[in-house]
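Collaboration report, partner site 2.

Our partner group contributed sequences for two proteins of shared interest, and the home lab folded both. The records are reproduced in the order in which they were received, starting with the first partner submission.
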Amino acid sequence: MKVWFKYLIGIVLGLVAGLILPMQNAAFAGFISFITDLFIRIGRYIVVPLVFCTTVVSINKLRSSKLFFKTVRWTAYVILSSTLILTVVGLLSILIVKLPRIPITVDTSSEVFKLDISSLFLSLFPLSAFDSLREGSFLLVPFVFALLIGFESATAVDTPLYKPVFQLFDSLSKLFYNIAVFFTETMAVFMIAIMTKWFVEYRQIMFSGIYTPMFIMFLVDFVLVVGIIYPVILRYVCHDPYPYRVLYASLAPALLAFFGGDANLALPLTIRHGKESLGIRRRCAGFTFPLFSIFARGGSALVSIISFILIWRSYSSLNIPVAEIFWIFGLSFSISFLLGGFPTGSAFILVTILCQQYARGFETSFLLLKPAALIICSFSSLFDIMSAMFGSYVVAVKTKTIEHHNAQNFI
C-alpha cells in the first residue's frame, strides 16, 4: 500500500472520529490533545539526529566530488526564486480579487511579538558545539555544526586519519534513516489523532463562513502554483517530460504538513520520498531538504500578504497606496527567511510582525484572523513542503545527483 494512501486513511478516520466522538467533554478533549501532542513529539524525535548525521555525510561527499559550491548556488537560487514566486502570487491574487471584509472585533492584546535577529544569529554558535544537538526547533544550529565537520573531514590533508569519522557518520545516517522510516510509517496511524484534533478545534470557524473566501483564495493559489507554475518550471528548466511525478511523490508529505502544521515533523517523510520516490541521492538530499525547511518559507510570505491586506481592507475602504504595497511585499519577502526557528505558526507570526511594524492603529489587528490561525499556518506549511520537494528535485537534476524512478515504483 502506498504511503500517501495510508496517510489518507488516517485522515479519513480522524475526520470520522471528530464527528462521532464526544469532544464536547472537556476531559476527553484534553486527552485527545495530549495524545496528539505526544504523537507530534514522537514524530520529531528523530529529526535532529537524522539531519545532523546525514548533513555530515552529504557535505563530505559534495566536497569530495567537487559539487559543493554548485549545489550551494543552485539551492540558494531555487530558495530565492520559489520565495519570490510565492510572494508575487500572494500579492497579485489579493490585489486582483477583493475578498469580503471580516467583521471587526473588539478584542485587544497586550502581547507584542519581537523577532530578535541578533539572538537568532548568536544561537547558531552556542557556548558548546554539542549544545547544538539539543536544539529541536531551529535546525540551522545542528546543520552548521554538521557542515563544519563534513567540510573539514573532506578537505583535510591527512584524509585516512578522518576516514573512520566519515564511516561512523555514514553508518549513523543509515541507522537514523531506517528509524525515520519506521516513524513515518507509524505516523500514518498517528494521523487519526492529529486529524481529530485539527478538525474539532476549527470546524466552527470553517463552518461559520467568515474566513471561507480567504481559504478558497489559498486553495486556488495552491492549485496555480503546484499545478501550473512549478510543473512548467520543471519542464523548461529540468527538461522533465513528466513534471507531475514530483507532485505525486509529494502527496504524503503534503498531507502531513497541512494537518500537522509542523515543518520539522514533515521533514523525515520529505527526505524519505525524495530518496525512495524521486531518487534524489543522499549527498544532495542531506543538504537541500534541511535548508529548504529552514529558509524556503515562501508559503508564509504568500498567506501573510493575503491576510494582512484582507485585514487592511476590513478596517478601511480606501485603496492601499502603491508605496505601502511595495513595503508589505518587501517586508514579507525578507522576514520569511528569518522564520526557520519557528517550525509551527510561522505564517501567523509574520502576520503579527506586519501589523506591528505597519502601526497606525493596526498593532493588534492580527486578532481578526487569530481564530483561523491554524488553517492559515496549515496552508503555509503546504506551500513550503511543495517548494521543498520541487526545489530539491531541481537542484538534484542540475547537479546530476539523482536516479530517476518510475512512478509505479514510488513508495
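Second partner submission, folded after the first:
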Amino acid sequence: MSDAGQGSIRSGQKTLRCGYTTGSCAAGAAKAAAQMLFTGKVCHQAEIGTPAGKLLRLPVEQPLIGADFASCAVRKDGGDDIDATDGLLIFAKAERGGRPGEVEIRGGEGVGVVTKPGLDRPVGDAAINTVPRRMIEKEAGDVLAWAEAETGVLITVSVPGGGEAAKKTMNPRLGIVGGISILGTSGIVEPMSEKALLDTIAAELSQKKAMGVKTLIMTPGGMGQDFLVKNFHIQKERIVICSNFIGDTLDMAVADGFESVLLAGHIGKLVKLGSGIMNTHSHVADGRMETFAACGVEAGADVRKLQRMLTCVTAEDAVQVMKEDGIWGPVLEKLLARIGRQMRERVQGRLKTGCILISAKSGFLGQTPGAEELLTG
C-alpha cells in the first residue's frame, strides 16, 4: 500500500479506502525501473504524481538489475473497490534506447491488444490507455532528465496473470485480447465508482459507432441480452450492457450521433422509466408499484384491484396479480406510452427510441410503437 495520496470517500454510512489504478502502478514501476537502470541502485519505492493532483508513494516489488536492463513491479491496490485486477503485479522493464529524452512504451505479457476500432488506442496497439501512457512518459522522462541520460528509454509493461484476469473484465466484449488494459484517468480508484462503469459503457458506445452501428441496442443486464439473442437472433457483440445507467447511456448515444436506440430489459427495472427514473438502482429510487398504480389510474382500473397490486413485493408478482384481476392489458398500454414519452424527452427527440419489456416468467410482455423495426437497424 502507498502511504500518501489515496485517501477515502464516504459511501452512505461507510468510509471507504481509495486505491490506485493500473495506470498508476505502471507509471510507478516504470519510474523505479528507469531509476535502477540509470543509477545501478535498487529502488524500493516510487513516488509519482497523479492527474487528480495526488501524490502516491508506491511500494516496489521484485526489483531486478541486469546487465542491460532493470525491472520491478507495483502491486495493484483497488482499495475497497475489489475487481479482477486487484492484487496483480504490474511490471515495468526499462532498457536504454532511442533519442535522449525519448520514452517508448510497449505492452508485454498479460497486457491486452486492441483488435476493434473505436477504443482509446488504435487497432494493433497495446491496451495501455492515453492517460497512463502520459504518466509513464512523464515519470520515466523525469528520470532521464535527472540522470542526464545520453539515450532514451524503452519501457515494457507486463502483467503476469493478466490474460486470465482479463476474462473477468469487459475486455473480451471490447475486442481487447490477451490481457488486461492499463487504465485510469485520475490515477486513483474510488470504491464502488460509478465513473468506472460509465467509462466502460462509453468505450463500448464509441466502439459500436466506429464499427458503423446506427441503432444502439442496450439492456441493463444478462436477462435482456439473452432474450435478444434467443428471440431476435441479435449477436451479443451488438448489445451494450448499460447496467442501471439508462439515462446516462441515452445521453451518450445522443452525443455519439447514433440514429436510434432500442432498450430491452426486465419489467422490474424498466417500469421505473414510466416515472422518469433513469437510474434504476434500488438505492437511487424504487417507485415500481407506484408507477403501476399511476398507469392503472390513467387506465381507469378498479381502485381495489390496484390496492391489491400495491401489496406486491416484486414487479413479477404485480404483473401476475394484475393479470388475474384483468387489468394488466390497460396498465401495460399506459406504461409503454409513459416509457416511450420519457425516453423521447430524455434524448430531446434527437434520435428514435424504442423499448421492449420482458419477464422472467412470461418472456415478452410488450413494446413501444416502432420498437421492433429498430431491431433491424
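Feedback sent to the partner group on the second submission included the following. Confidence is low (pLDDT under 50) at residues 9-13. The CA atoms of residues 118 and 207 lie 4 Å apart.
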